[in-house]
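sorry to bug you again but im stuck and you know this stuff better than me. theres a chain ive been looking at and ive put its sequence and its fold in token form underneath. id like you to explain what the token line says about the fold, in plain words if possible. anything you notice is useful, everything is just below.
___
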Amino acid sequence: MTSSVITPEDVLESLMNDGTIDALRLKIINQLKANEDLKKNTIRMVEQSKVLNTPGAEKQTKRELFDALRQELETPVLEKASRSVWELILDSNGLGKEISETVEKVFCRLSGQEPPLFTPSTIEAPAEKEKEKQQFNSSSSKKRRFGEMNNGGNYEVHVGVTDPSASASAINEDPNPAPSSNMKS
């Protein structure tokens, strides 16, 4: 019997086709909606906005106010929501654990292996998970490519890369570069 190599794309396709991705997305949305800190923070940002606290704001139409608020607050609100989503995804006791277990089960099903593939001794230590969370929270503009998310947490951070050739050349760089002086701490 020959076994084919199961790629991350195979697992992702299976998760998309069986509705798992949609179910996880719905759980994330519901948890975001229930996040009182996120709600309070957003309300505070709106109440303290320059747009609403500028003299003459009461004379603007609702549409003008909404457009101006969106322009002022969209990025900071979405950054906070994004951080909250990543916290959910990386939570080793909640949704993050469920995602990991689901991906593992699908991989095992596709490859014909018996779960669990990872025993407690092979799973990343909680201290390392916390370190990864702290690194993520230290900058709101970190982005990882799909392939970088799957190499055991050793990923290179690309901040504001807009040139595709720069992004492609970064793949061949040292996977553990010295900290950059232009990174936010």
The CA atoms of residues 87 and 133 lie 7 Å apart. The chain has seven helices and no strands. Residues 139-185 have pLDDT under 50 and may be disordered.
